[in-house]
What we know:
The structure holds two protein chains of two kinds. By secondary structure, chain A is mainly beta.
Amino acid sequence: MQLKSLHDWDKTASIILYGNTELIAEGCKSIADYSDTVLELDMGKYNLKIRGASLVIKTYLYEQVAVTGQIISVEYSGGGEVNAG
Amino acid sequence: MLVDFLRKIPGYVSFEAVGGFPERFLNICRFSGIALWEVNNDGVKVTAFTSVSDYKKIRKAAHRSGMRVRISGKYGLPFFASKHKNRVCAAIGVVLVIVFLMLMSGMVWSIEIVGNDTVKAETLQGFLEENGVKVGARKSKIDTSAIEEAMLFEYRELNWVSLNIFGGKLLVEIKETLPAPGVPVPGEPVNLVATKDGIITLVMGHNGTNAVKAGQTVHKGDLLVAGLTVGTDGVERVTRASGKVFARTSGEITGNSQLKCERQLIAEQKTDYRPVLFGAAVPGKFKAGNSVESEYFGESYLKGGGGDLPFGVLWRTTPVCESQTVTLGENEAALAALLSCVKARRVYDSDLETEECTYTLVIKSGTVTVTALSIGIEDIATEKPFSADPPKEPESEDD
């Protein structure tokens, strides 16, 4: 197994889920899709799709996204880089 | 709540964005360093909050993502001030209140001294006042270190002093010097003699020569312990006699009451007040009472911060008394006499271990007398300067 460099570890995204009402994702590159039922985040090497109801982006600054609402599911999908511009 | 308060100081707005690409709009905002919170997309429009300064940059992001934005709400101090800009007096009032609070919070409002035992708190307060530390003094003007040093220099009884200011309260913590264990000083030679008549029950002579023993009867003034000691060389030396000599004693205590007596009855009470502001009483004169037997003074202060605030009231209650001649029943007079007797007995028995006490009631020519015969054990030894004359010896050996 090849060890990653410290630089790579630093860039690894992290996701914290508090029950089914709050999710904090760090390392988010951009928002790929957003409505009150679906929020898809580009995390670099994969996409994170959050399904639920009344999804609200509590904060969105730098690479951190905090989402609140009724979260039903969290899915990972192998997406590529999604450029914002 | 704190975050909301901090956001309100520079002000923030809520806005709606419609049309275009919401995701692209949000991403451009993020890359432009525009902080958004409470972002909600209901499919028709995107609503969010942002600061006033960031909203000025948001139009560029909206233009690039094809969205139209408009403000839906304004919050915070700049908008509040703008809304009420014509209310000059209110603004002046707010400023004055803030200035007043800042001035008042910069003062000492109460002083508490703890840990003193031998040095009185009033003495220390006087010293602090001489050095400018008093209620109403500016906290910034108080050099705690210098005052601590000055207090230690002034009062040798103090071992450690610390002045701490907690809000408007100045706490002076003190540790006093413990007295060095003293070496007994011989002092003037004395004898121990009896203070009253009695039968000796126990002799505990610490120094000197015992002149009596248990079971012996002594009278007032009899020698109990002589201030003489015989050394190992057989030579007698005068010394300071010390010890305790317990004896069974008896004493009579009487209490009287008249069947007809004059009494001072309180007809009414007048109370005068003087407000205290910033630690000083407002000048005022208490009214002189009529037929004043006694006056009751008091003070009450507002409490705050664990101590008294320098706002309160001084009051004086003056009872207006009237003299009345009262005729008591025998039982009532007997009870009054008994009460008087018991009060006197309490003083008499303070150092007495009472074994027995009998009461006698006599009513004679309008006077009720209660006599208590109290028998108990007490220390009857007292010091008397040593004299070369032979002291009075006890009369008998046994009783």
